[in-house]
Protein backbone atom coordinates (compact mmCIF):
# COMPACT_ATOMS: atom_id res chain seq x y z
CA UNK A 1 0.00 0.00 0.00
CA UNK A 2 0.89 3.66 -0.02
CA UNK A 3 3.44 4.57 2.67
CA UNK A 4 3.31 8.33 2.17
CA UNK A 5 -0.46 8.84 2.33
CA UNK A 6 -2.83 9.00 5.30
CA UNK A 7 -6.48 9.87 5.86
CA UNK A 8 -8.61 11.01 8.78
CA UNK A 9 -11.65 8.75 9.02
CA UNK A 10 -13.66 6.58 11.38
CA UNK A 11 -12.43 3.25 12.71
CA UNK A 12 -15.33 1.63 10.87
CA UNK A 13 -14.09 3.06 7.54
CA UNK A 14 -10.64 1.60 8.19
CA UNK A 15 -12.20 -1.80 8.89
CA UNK A 16 -14.35 -1.77 5.75
CA UNK A 17 -11.53 -0.70 3.42
CA UNK A 18 -8.74 -2.71 5.02
CA UNK A 19 -6.71 0.29 6.19
CA UNK A 20 -4.05 0.36 8.88
CA UNK A 21 -4.96 2.64 11.79
CA UNK A 22 -1.92 4.66 12.86
CA UNK A 23 -3.46 6.52 15.79
CA UNK A 24 -6.70 7.20 17.63
CA UNK A 25 -8.07 10.39 19.16
CA UNK A 26 -5.81 12.80 17.27
CA UNK A 27 -7.98 15.82 18.10
CA UNK A 28 -6.46 18.45 20.39
CA UNK A 29 -9.84 19.07 22.04
CA UNK A 30 -11.70 16.19 23.67
CA UNK A 31 -15.02 17.83 22.76
CA UNK A 32 -14.18 17.95 19.05
CA UNK A 33 -16.19 15.43 17.01
CA UNK A 34 -16.42 14.80 13.27
CA UNK A 35 -19.60 13.23 11.95
CA UNK A 36 -19.44 10.72 9.11
CA UNK A 37 -22.80 10.16 7.44
CA UNK A 38 -23.88 7.55 4.91
CA UNK A 39 -26.12 9.13 2.26
CA UNK A 40 -28.54 7.03 0.23
CA UNK A 41 -31.82 7.18 -1.65
CA UNK A 42 -33.60 4.95 0.84
CA UNK A 43 -33.37 5.37 4.59
CA UNK A 44 -33.03 2.58 7.14
CA UNK A 45 -35.50 2.11 9.95
CA UNK A 46 -34.01 2.24 13.42
CA UNK A 47 -34.70 -0.59 15.84
CA UNK A 48 -36.86 0.16 18.86
CA UNK A 49 -35.04 1.55 21.87
CA UNK A 50 -32.31 3.33 19.88
CA UNK A 51 -32.13 7.07 20.60
CA UNK A 52 -32.58 8.91 17.31
CA UNK A 53 -31.61 12.25 15.86
CA UNK A 54 -33.22 13.89 12.81
CA UNK A 55 -31.69 16.56 10.56
CA UNK A 56 -33.86 18.96 8.57
CA UNK A 57 -33.39 22.09 6.46
CA UNK A 58 -35.94 24.83 5.80
CA UNK A 59 -36.28 28.29 4.26
CA UNK A 60 -38.79 30.73 5.82
CA UNK A 61 -41.61 32.22 3.76
CA UNK A 62 -40.93 35.73 4.96
CA UNK A 63 -37.84 37.70 5.85
CA UNK A 64 -39.08 39.24 9.07
CA UNK A 65 -38.03 39.81 12.65
CA UNK A 66 -38.53 36.74 14.83
CA UNK A 67 -38.97 34.25 12.00
CA UNK A 68 -36.45 31.79 13.47
CA UNK A 69 -38.08 32.06 16.90
CA UNK A 70 -41.44 31.17 15.36
CA UNK A 71 -39.91 28.23 13.49
CA UNK A 72 -38.20 26.59 16.45
CA UNK A 73 -41.30 27.19 18.57
CA UNK A 74 -42.94 24.47 16.46
CA UNK A 75 -40.67 22.01 18.25
CA UNK A 76 -40.57 23.68 21.67
CA UNK A 77 -44.36 23.49 21.93
CA UNK A 78 -44.10 19.70 21.51
CA UNK A 79 -41.16 19.17 23.89
CA UNK A 80 -38.78 18.26 21.06
CA UNK A 81 -35.21 19.16 21.99
CA UNK A 82 -32.84 20.72 19.45
CA UNK A 83 -29.18 19.66 19.36
CA UNK A 84 -27.98 22.06 16.65
CA UNK A 85 -29.10 25.17 14.78
CA UNK A 86 -27.06 26.46 11.84
CA UNK A 87 -27.75 28.96 9.07
CA UNK A 88 -26.26 28.87 5.58
CA UNK A 89 -26.54 31.70 3.03
CA UNK A 90 -27.66 31.26 -0.57
CA UNK A 91 -28.37 33.72 -3.35
CA UNK A 92 -32.03 34.41 -4.14
CA UNK A 93 -33.16 32.03 -6.87
CA UNK A 94 -30.39 29.47 -6.32
CA UNK A 95 -32.85 26.94 -4.89
CA UNK A 96 -35.54 27.70 -7.45
CA UNK A 97 -37.71 29.28 -4.77
CA UNK A 98 -37.85 32.84 -6.07
CA UNK A 99 -37.16 35.75 -3.75
CA UNK A 100 -38.45 35.91 -0.20
CA UNK A 101 -41.46 38.05 0.62
CA UNK A 102 -40.29 41.19 2.42
CA UNK A 103 -42.38 42.76 5.13
CA UNK A 104 -42.76 46.58 4.85
CA UNK A 105 -40.32 47.14 7.73
CA UNK A 106 -37.62 45.02 6.09
CA UNK A 107 -38.22 46.38 2.58
CA UNK A 108 -37.70 49.96 3.81
CA UNK A 109 -34.62 49.15 5.89
CA UNK A 110 -31.22 50.64 4.94
CA UNK A 111 -29.81 47.12 4.40
CA UNK A 112 -32.46 46.34 1.79
CA UNK A 113 -31.69 49.53 -0.15
CA UNK A 114 -27.90 49.48 -0.02
CA UNK A 115 -26.12 49.43 -3.40
CA UNK A 116 -24.96 46.07 -4.64
CA UNK A 117 -22.51 45.08 -7.36
CA UNK A 118 -24.10 44.40 -10.72
CA UNK A 119 -22.30 42.47 -13.48
CA UNK A 120 -21.30 43.93 -16.87
CA UNK A 121 -24.13 44.88 -19.20
CA UNK A 122 -23.66 45.29 -22.98
CA UNK A 123 -19.90 45.11 -22.61
CA UNK A 124 -19.77 47.91 -20.02
CA UNK A 125 -17.47 47.65 -17.04
CA UNK A 126 -18.83 46.42 -13.73
CA UNK A 127 -20.29 49.20 -11.62
CA UNK A 128 -22.32 49.82 -8.50
CA UNK A 129 -25.98 50.41 -9.12
CA UNK A 130 -28.84 50.94 -6.72
CA UNK A 131 -30.79 47.72 -7.00
CA UNK A 132 -34.43 47.19 -6.22
CA UNK A 133 -35.11 46.65 -2.52
CA UNK A 134 -34.18 43.08 -1.64
CA UNK A 135 -31.52 41.07 0.13
CA UNK A 136 -28.39 39.90 -1.67
CA UNK A 137 -28.51 36.69 0.36
CA UNK A 138 -31.15 34.56 1.98
CA UNK A 139 -30.63 31.92 4.63
CA UNK A 140 -31.52 28.26 4.91
CA UNK A 141 -31.64 26.89 8.45
CA UNK A 142 -30.35 23.44 9.38
CA UNK A 143 -31.69 21.85 12.56
CA UNK A 144 -30.85 18.64 14.42
CA UNK A 145 -33.77 17.28 16.46
CA UNK A 146 -33.46 14.71 19.22
CA UNK A 147 -36.38 12.65 17.97
CA UNK A 148 -37.18 10.27 15.09
CA UNK A 149 -38.89 11.87 12.11
CA UNK A 150 -41.78 9.38 12.20
CA UNK A 151 -42.74 10.21 15.79
CA UNK A 152 -46.24 11.77 16.00
CA UNK A 153 -44.86 14.86 17.75
CA UNK A 154 -42.31 15.35 14.95
CA UNK A 155 -44.93 14.91 12.23
CA UNK A 156 -47.14 17.54 13.88
CA UNK A 157 -44.17 19.89 14.23
CA UNK A 158 -43.33 19.48 10.54
CA UNK A 159 -46.91 20.28 9.53
CA UNK A 160 -46.79 23.39 11.71
CA UNK A 161 -43.43 24.41 10.24
CA UNK A 162 -44.76 24.03 6.68
CA UNK A 163 -47.12 26.93 7.39
CA UNK A 164 -44.11 29.19 8.06
CA UNK A 165 -41.75 28.02 5.31
CA UNK A 166 -41.58 27.77 1.51
CA UNK A 167 -39.11 24.90 1.58
CA UNK A 168 -38.61 22.11 4.12
CA UNK A 169 -36.72 18.85 3.73
CA UNK A 170 -36.06 16.01 6.16
CA UNK A 171 -32.45 15.03 5.49
CA UNK A 172 -32.64 11.84 7.52
CA UNK A 173 -32.97 10.12 10.88
CA UNK A 174 -30.00 8.32 12.41
CA UNK A 175 -28.82 7.00 15.79
CA UNK A 176 -27.53 9.51 18.33
CA UNK A 177 -24.73 7.18 19.42
CA UNK A 178 -23.61 6.16 15.94
CA UNK A 179 -25.20 2.74 15.55
CA UNK A 180 -23.61 1.01 12.57
CA UNK A 181 -25.40 -0.41 9.54
CA UNK A 182 -22.92 -2.85 7.94
CA UNK A 183 -23.69 -4.13 4.42
CA UNK A 184 -24.67 -7.54 5.81
CA UNK A 185 -27.56 -6.04 7.75
CA UNK A 186 -30.81 -5.73 5.85
CA UNK A 187 -32.70 -2.41 5.88
CA UNK A 188 -34.82 -2.06 8.97
CA UNK A 189 -32.45 -4.07 11.17
CA UNK A 190 -29.36 -2.55 12.74
CA UNK A 191 -26.23 -3.85 14.37
CA UNK A 192 -24.96 -2.19 17.51
CA UNK A 193 -21.37 -0.88 17.48
CA UNK A 194 -18.67 -2.98 19.13
CA UNK A 195 -17.72 -1.97 22.68
CA UNK A 196 -14.96 0.60 22.96
CA UNK A 197 -12.73 -1.95 24.65
CA UNK A 198 -12.55 -3.98 21.44
CA UNK A 199 -10.72 -1.20 19.60
CA UNK A 200 -7.01 -1.61 20.24
CA UNK A 201 -4.31 0.65 18.88
CA UNK A 202 -2.44 -1.39 16.26
CA UNK A 203 1.27 -2.03 16.40
CA UNK A 204 3.09 -0.60 13.39
CA UNK A 205 6.73 -0.40 12.39
CA UNK A 206 8.38 2.94 13.26
CA UNK A 207 8.15 5.50 10.48
CA UNK A 208 10.53 8.30 9.54
CA UNK A 209 8.33 11.40 9.48
CA UNK A 210 9.26 14.97 8.56
CA UNK A 211 7.03 17.84 9.71
CA UNK A 212 7.25 21.01 7.62
CA UNK A 213 6.16 23.93 9.78
CA UNK A 214 6.54 23.63 13.53
CA UNK A 215 3.70 25.76 14.78
CA UNK A 216 1.16 24.74 17.41
CA UNK A 217 -0.38 22.01 15.27
CA UNK A 218 3.01 20.81 14.05
CA UNK A 219 4.22 20.43 17.64
CA UNK A 220 1.02 18.59 18.51
CA UNK A 221 1.58 16.12 15.66
CA UNK A 222 5.22 15.66 16.64
CA UNK A 223 4.27 14.75 20.21
CA UNK A 224 1.70 12.29 18.91
CA UNK A 225 4.12 10.55 16.57
CA UNK A 226 6.80 10.33 19.28
CA UNK A 227 4.27 8.81 21.68
CA UNK A 228 3.55 6.20 19.01
CA UNK A 229 7.22 5.27 18.78
CA UNK A 230 7.96 6.93 15.44
UniProtKB/TrEMBL annotation:
Coiled coil: none annotated. Pathway: Amino-acid biosynthesis. Residues 1-41 form the Prephenate dehydratase domain. It comes from the Eukaryota. Pfam families: PDT. Gene3D superfamilies: 3.30.70.260, Periplasmic binding protein-like II. One of its GO terms (molecular function) is prephenate dehydratase activity. InterPro entries: ACT-like_dom_sf, Preph_deHydtase. GO terms for biological process: L-phenylalanine biosynthetic process. One of its GO terms (cellular component) is cytoplasm. Keywords: Amino-acid biosynthesis, Aromatic amino acid biosynthesis, Lyase, Phenylalanine biosynthesis. SUPFAM superfamilies: ACT-like, Periplasmic binding protein-like II. This is Prephenate dehydratase domain-containing protein. It comes from Haptolina brevifila. The lineage of its organism: Eukaryota, Haptista, Haptophyta, Prymnesiophyceae, Prymnesiales.
Amino acid sequence: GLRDTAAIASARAAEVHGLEVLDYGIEDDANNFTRFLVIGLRGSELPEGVAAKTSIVFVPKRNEVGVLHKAISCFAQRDIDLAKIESRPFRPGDLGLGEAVLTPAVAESPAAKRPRLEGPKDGAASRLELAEPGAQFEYAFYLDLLAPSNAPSCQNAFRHLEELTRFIKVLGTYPVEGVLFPPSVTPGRAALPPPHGSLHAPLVAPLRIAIIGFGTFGQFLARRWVMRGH
